[in-house]
Specification:
0% strand; 71% helix; 232 residues; DNA alkylation repair protein; Serine Threonine Protein Phosphatase 5, Tetratricopeptide repeat
Length: 232
């Protein structure tokens, strides 16, 4: 039985849909054939998630099972809101369990990037990073990207080791979306500690995808950047 809160949220999503936004999303997301895009802007989805952050776990799971892209997105953003407000480690663990049980529904780059750092990354501040190795070894492109992007929260906490390990483990990944994500995370490390990034690239740049090195060095001084790009 669908709850009144879910019915209200679904109704709000449809009222806020914009045909022009749907057309843009169809172009940049390349959704699966069975996906339905409404065309709701991300800031609007974030606002809805804040106003519906009291959803129960069963309601979040219901949304995650939907074929409507924005319903899955807002469910993930609700999990993110709940993770931000979680009072203790046990509560964070329950939210992470919900997320990890539904990674097959986190199936496009916007869903991954909008959820993995806050939901999974926040949980990993308290936990050993072994789950990242499991996700990185997955046959699913999206689970591998979840592993990479989740480390953004660890990077911001000064913990670079998990990211460096994933870059080495995934350096031969066949998917450009993984190469770009690796470069993005390395660039974030460089924002906090350029020396740590430079030391890593001194050792590993020749074996990394060129696009990873280019993304990683975007913020470096030109003379330093060219040193690594030429080797990458």
């Amino acid at each position: 039985m669908t709850s009144s809160s879910l019915e209200r949220l679904r109704s709000e999503l449809r009222e806020l849909a914009e045909p022009k936004v749907r057309t843009q999303l169809e172009r940049v997301l390349s959704p699966a054939a069975d996906d339905e895009l409404l065309g709701v802007r991300v800031p609007v989805l974030r606002g809805l998630a804040r106003s519906h952050r009291g959803l129960r776990s069963v309601e979040v799971a219901d949304l995650l099972s939907s074929r409507v892209h924005e319903e899955r997105f807002v469910a993930l953003l609700v999990l993110a809101e709940q993770m931000r407000l979680a009072p203790d480690r046990a509560a964070r663990g329950k939210l992470a369990d919900i997320y990890l049980a539904h990674t097959d529904r986190v199936d496009n780059w916007d869903l991954v990037d909008g959820s993995a750092p806050v939901v999974l990354g926040t949980w990993l501040l308290d936990e050993p990073p072994g789950v990242l190795e499991r996700l990185a070894a997955s046959t699913s492109l999206w689970e591998r990207r979840i592993a990479v992007v989740a480390t953004l929260t660890l990077i911001r906490a000064g913990r670079y080791g998990p990211t460096f390990s994933l870059v080495v483990a995934l350096r031969r990944d066949p998917e450009p979306l993984i190469h770009k994500a690796l470069g993005w995370m390395l660039r974030e490390i460089g924002r906090h500690d350029e020396r740590a990034l430079a030391d890593f690239l001194d050792r590993h740049a020749p074996g990394l995808p060129r696009i990873t090195v280019r993304h990683a060095t975007e913020r470096m001084a030109p003379e330093l950047r060219v040193r690594f790009v030429r080797r990458g």
